[in-house]
């Protein structure tokens, strides 16, 4: 038997063991494990467009993220863990003001329940009050994605959180694949899955 054929058995075993101690997990996790049994294969997409990278601190990472947002003409779909950067928020507000449809899924725990500074709630509230579609997700122990999908063409990804710490003091990286619709389609599928598992954020300060 090939090693890859053991994957469904392993995942099923994990699901059963976790079900016995479900206090640390939400029911959606078991549902996602069932999905993983059927869709565990990675997605291959053709190389296309152009690649640009940035780093932080002082390596152009945040500037590249802002340029991606400012390039948007029709829509931006964002996934985030920490979401506290005033410059990223300002760029998304500018996009919304010029008619770009902005949708965001952010980690619930990091930006709401554990947000002692209030910066995460304030950032999400600012976008929600401006008419952006803002949702929070608690289906996973950590929603650790940091992704922008712009105009269904361009994808920004990497370790870079949308936060001051990521821009100023942390060692981070950003990669942008400009004009690669196939890659954008793959990330849109991931975005849509998380969107379905999230709930609307209620604006508050």
From TrEMBL:
First-tier enzyme category under EC: hydrolase
Ranges of residues in domain PLD phosphodiesterase: 139-166
Documented EC number(s): 3.1.4.4
Signal peptide start and end residues: 1-24
UniProt keyword annotation of Coiled coil present: no
Catalytic reaction annotation: a 1,2-diacyl-sn-glycero-3-phosphocholine + H2O = a 1,2-diacyl-sn-glycero-3-phosphate + choline + H(+)
Coiled coil residues, start to end: none
Keyword hit for Ribonucleoprotein: no
GO function terms (MF aspect): phospholipase D activity; RNA endonuclease activity producing 5'-phosphomonoesters, hydrolytic mechanism
Keywords for this protein: Hydrolase, Lipid degradation, Lipid metabolism, Plasmid, Signal
GO terms, biological process: lipid catabolic process; phosphorus metabolic process
Domain of life (superkingdom): Bacteria
Family named by the database record: Belongs to the phospholipase D family.
The protein's name in its UniProt record: phospholipase D
Protein species of origin: Alicycliphilus denitrificans (strain DSM 14773 / CIP 107495 / K601)
């Amino acid at each position: 038997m090939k090693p890859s054929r053991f994957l469904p058995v392993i995942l099923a075993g994990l699901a059963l063991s976790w079900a016995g101690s479900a206090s640390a997990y939400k029911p959606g996790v078991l549902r996602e494990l069932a999905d993983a049994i059927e869709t565990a294969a990675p997605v291959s997409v053709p190389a296309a467009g152009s690649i640009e990278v940035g780093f932080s601190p002082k390596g152009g990472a945040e500037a590249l993220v802002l340029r991606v947002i400012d390039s948007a003409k029709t829509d931006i779909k964002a996934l985030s863990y920490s979401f506290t950067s005033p410059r990223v928020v300002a760029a998304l507000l500018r996009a919304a003001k010029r008619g770009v449809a902005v949708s965001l899924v952010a980690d619930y725990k990091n930006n709401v329940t554990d947000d002692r500074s209030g910066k995460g709630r304030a950032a999400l509230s600012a976008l929600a009050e401006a008419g952006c579609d803002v949702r929070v997700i608690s289906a996973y122990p950590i929603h650790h994605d940091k992704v922008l999908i712009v105009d269904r063409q361009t994808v920004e990804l990497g370790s870079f959180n949308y936060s001051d710490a990521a821009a100023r003091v942390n060692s981070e990286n950003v990669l942008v694949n400009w004009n690669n619709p196939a890659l954008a389609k793959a990330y849109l599928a991931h975005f849509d899955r998380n969107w379905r598992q999230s709930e609307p954020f209620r604006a508050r300060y």
